[in-house]
Each structure stands twice: as C-alpha cells, then as structure tokens.
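Saturday, quiet lab. Running sequence design on the structure tokens for the scaffold JK sent over.
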C-alpha cells in the first residue's frame, strides 16, 4: 500500500516524548513494504539518488499497532501507530476509507 499522508511524531523510541520543535505535521509519500513503512517526500523515494532518506524515515511495523485516533480531534481521519520499540505517531489520511485501509493494512500485513 502507498499514498500521501500527514505524519506527526508524538513519542520517540522507548516512549520518550518527541521534543518540541519536532512535533509538527509533515507530508510524506508513505510506502508499506516488507513490514516497513517508508516515508519519502514524494513518489520517487526508492530511486537510487534518494535512497538515503529511506533510512532516516523508516518505521518498522512488526508488532506495531494501528488504531483510529478518536481522541485526537484537531484533524479528521487520523490513526495512531504504536511501534514495538514504543514510539508513537499520528497519521492523517485523506478520508475515512483510506483511514480504514491504512489501519487494516498495518495491523494485518
Ligand atoms: C508543534 C506543531 C504541531 C502541534 C504541536 C507543536 O510545534 O505546532 O502542529 O501539534 O503541539 O508542538 P513544532 O512544529 O514546533 O514541533 P497539534 O497540531 O496536534 O496541535 P503539541 O506539542 O501539543 O503536540
């Protein structure tokens, strides 16, 4: 699965609160491949010239959990992703269908 999403970092690994200044929303082209969510600035992230940003923005989703973020009311169609290493992110998708699709894909991959 792939597509544009907005992402906000809430907690870094080991449940360490993401520092102020790195908690903003940012748009990424998100690709789920081999149990890794790759976040690229556009669709061309797997080109050789852009491969280095793969490493910085890859989220391993083995033993991760995605849930609809019904408690987050500032934006619509948002899900929360909790990873095995206790990081936490919010992702905003384009509509309710995309929201379900991302949540199911992450949880049942
Ligand atoms: C964050 C940015 C986020 C905001 C977050 C800010 O600032 O304004 O949009 O989250 O609030 O810290 P920065 O870009 O400097 O990191 P919301 O959109 O959810 O309000 P937070 O600290 O309450 O998470």
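Result came back. Writing it out in full:
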């Amino acid at each position: 699965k792939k597509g544009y999403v907005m992402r906000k970092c809430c907690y870094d690994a080991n449940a360490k609160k993401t520092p102020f200044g790195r908690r903003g929303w940012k748009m990424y082209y998100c690709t789920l491949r081999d149990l890794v969510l790759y976040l690229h600035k556009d669709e061309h992230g797997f080109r050789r010239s852009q491969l280095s940003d793969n490493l910085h923005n890859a989220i391993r989703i083995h033993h991760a959990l995605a849930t609809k973020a019904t408690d987050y009311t500032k934006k619509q169609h948002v899900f929360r992703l909790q990873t095995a290493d206790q990081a936490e992110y919010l992702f905003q998708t384009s509509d309710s269908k995309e929201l379900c699709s991302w949540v199911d894909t992450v949880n049942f991959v």
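Notes for JK: The helical segments are 52-56, 96-108. The first strand starts at residue 2 and ends at 12. Ask whether to fix the surface positions before the next round.
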